[in-house]
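Record type: ASSEMBLY
Status: queued
Input:
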Amino acid sequence: MNWIINISRRDFLKTGALIGGGLMLGVFPRYDEASGEAAATTFAPNAFIRIGTDDTVTIIVNKSEMGQGVYTSLPMVVAEELEADWSKIRIEPAPVDPVYNHTIWGLQGTGGSTSTWTTWDQLRKAGAAARVMLIQAAAEIWGVDPLTCKAENGFVIHPETKRQLSYGKLTEKAAQMSVPQDVLLKKPEEYKLIGKPAKRLDTPSKVMGKAVFGIDVKVPDMLTAVVARCPVFGGKLKSFSDKKAKAVAGVKSVVQIPTGVAVVADNFWSAKLGRDVLETVWDEGPLPGFNTKKQRSDYAALAKKPGAAARKEGDAEAALTKAKKQISAEYEVPYLAHAPMEPLNAVIDFREDGCDIWTGTQFQTVDRNSAAEVLGLKPEQVKLHTTFLGGGFGRRANPHSDFVTEAAHVAKTVKEPVRVMWTREDDIMGGYYRPMWYDRIAAGLDENGNLTAWKHTIVGQSIIAGTAFEKMLVKEGVDETSVEGAKDIPYDIPNILVDLHSPKYPITVQWWRSVGHSHTAFVVETFIDEVARTAGKDPYEFRRSLLSKDPRRKVLLELVAQKAGWGSPLPKGRGRGIAVHKSFGSYVAQVAEVSVNKDGEVRVHKVVCAVDCGRTVNPDTIEAQMESGIVFGLSAALFGEITFKKGRVEQNNFHNYKLVRMKHMPVVEVHIMPSEEKSGGVGEPGVPPIAPAVANAIFSVTGRRIRRLPIRAEDVRSV
Amino acid sequence: MISFDVNGKIYNIDVSPDVPLLWVIRDYLGLSGTKFGCGMAQCGACTVHIDGKARRSCRTPVKDAAGKKITTIEGIPDDHPVKQAWIADDVPQCGYCQPGQIMEAIALLKETPNPTDEDIDTVMSGNLCRCGTYQRIRRSIHRASKMLAEGGKL
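Status: finished
Output:
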């Protein structure tokens, strides 16, 4: 049987779409075909807006939609200034072009919780410029002074004469107007959309199952490949035999690529079965005996030595020696996989003169350029189409474009349109983890219980070393992303030392939602809690008393304490824990309410969360992102762990890389602090405070300090 | 030849009987709303209805679907109370797991039209959401339950 599945001719006729050599259903248009027809009849004043004669306003969004709501919040910003009719807004993912570059990074990409604040001025100006041109066009048609016209809800109106023209009717004329250089932007009190909860524009397609993710893209005659990679990081292929794999029905070819061996078939299941029986011999490289236990003891030894200083104020060593009371602790957190629900994938249609790539990526420019290099094309010959992302969390912003580059190598070899798919096992075992960290920390208290010294040594791999971002983010041996959240500890302490060791290992590491903060907040916010208790003080009041230099954080802490009823009685067996952290320009404070059963199982009942992210765009999205961050952080706190034995990753799927499920879900209450401060991010800042809030709550119930993640039953049981 | 009904349409396919139903639905019927998440019935992204019951299509050999009635997310009407509740609560974030969540929720409400939070925990804990939309899913199931009590149809 050549085909695993043959659709009968009757079915073919019925659906009219299934053919023998490939699958025609759900064919995804190339960018040119999708947008080409529009050009003649639209008003496109800039790269972000296209208004059709049918009044449709298409917003071209240069940020990837991975759940964080940018396909709604960014259009809101444009539509606000454009005075557009919100019901006429449509979205189109931006192609790759310098005009769509991140305003700070200088390349097209989404991450670092930066989408809203870095496009804030750019998109408002784009909307306002279009509005001015539409008003100008209407004024010319009517022969009136533009200053006597106004724009509202998709119309230009001349109130004196009660005339109006819809934007669609003005497209031709508006296209002839010159683009204004300076535009008057609206005042916050004039906002109709910004700052008010809006329905997500992508919800209906996602609910109906029609949203197209990378994995859903199909092009005619597309093949599917899965790749066998070395099970030990840093290893490489020695030899392989394709005999058994090629005998699997549907398998077309077995090809060697730099990352391993690709089994190419006419459908996913055949490719997977082919890989199951593929025979490979690996040179396991430098790590065949590598294990987590040994790495941990190496890290613990390093943590006792001085590292590269990230912050030095006063003399922490001397102050510790002088202190009336010294408190010290060691912390450890493991490698973590991002595990987005949609496994990684990319579709590449490579031809002599060009190439189309469809993928859910956070890193368009890097991916396009990397693919071009592999394929021997100029970057502009490669068209990259951004689909919906079934989760990103940083994994889909790979500085080495790992999953796109690999797909390009397969495409180059097979010379037919090909989709490279990762299985869940490939994802969990495939590296680019949040690094494992080991922290050694000490604090000193004087005779009055005042905090006089703080010494924090951090050990862990740099995610930035060896990437194009090294020059920007590694300063004097300190990877800023390794120490963020620790270096900027906000508490009033006269003597502070934060230093860093960045050991090198072939295990690939990468930013993971909230990056360095994902571990520093846990260490800093549990240790300050411990210091407070040791000083005989309430952990909330203690923090509050040390925030003289950070009033914004202090006020937020007060808000969360008030909303959570800090200090009020709880049912027996329950305890509260508090944490506050600043990341990505936003402050988040959380109070967790927790109980522990006799087996040491932790139940988080409720989380009260307060966020100050400055000026808001879509409060509903902010609330959703706080809930999301809490669940993401809770999965890491309760379950998440990637470990190694004999060089191999010990976890491979969701049964042993566990995530929070419905039954673990606490009630989450979100309070947004009203603010006119500059916007911060919201995609990541919800993550860092939850682990320390839960750990501190566990202490208040059990008297046990949690110093390693994930939280283990043996660390929790009451003493 | 294996014959089954998908969303009201009869298919007769010549197929290796052990191929998971998920890949028949996705790669051959071209219905991409049903998602691949883990391949071992751990995440629920591939949930479909087989004769009205929620099943993980990634671990269902296609032979087990022979002669059965299969419903995917595309076979649920747009005005279905669960879909409408999901829209009202803006449940999805990345959205990838949501077809599976919706199929599981519909099956839950068929068995238990007025579920408690505990009922929801029991049935919905097989469906992972990495974005953490659980609170909204819970809210939306209660909303759909209310819509059903007020005359909406499953």
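Annotation: Chain B has two domains: 2-75, 81-149.
Annotation: Chain B has a mean pLDDT of 96.
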